[in-house]
Amino acid sequence: MLDGHFFYSRKRIAIALEPDLLYAVTGFLGDMGAEVVAAVSPTQSPVLERLKAATIMVGDHSDVETLARDADLIVSNSHGRQGAARIGVPLHRMGLPMFDRLGAGLRVQVGYRGTRELLCDIGNLFLAREMDHESHEHGHDDHGESHGCGGGSCGCNAV
Q: Which fold is adopted by the domain 5-99+117-147?
């Protein structure tokens, strides 16, 4: 966790999961230094009152898509893939259903090993996005506006 927190710091994350998993993942990501900008649950639950997120709501993936426009990552099940693709935000698949990844049901997602895997998987998504961003040329026009990849995880707001 000590090494990984550098990649999570100040990242904006939108999460759409079942209430109990939403609570656990929101807490984990917050502890890693990320800001949970949206926490969306498909059902009402008392655990939602304990979430630490900028926006908490009962909704669906269209709500996540709306709330995640400025996010660095979406955490959701496989149904989140279309919205994430439309707004150009990476998706970390978690929860059920997960029908578009082979071996998803074989992955360990609990305990020390599961936490370690989650930390590395999401950290590697951030790292890959940052590396992709650095590979683009960045320039500024005469008006001081930057032009580049469209906003990598390094915080650039290039268009």
A: Rossmann fold (3.40.50)
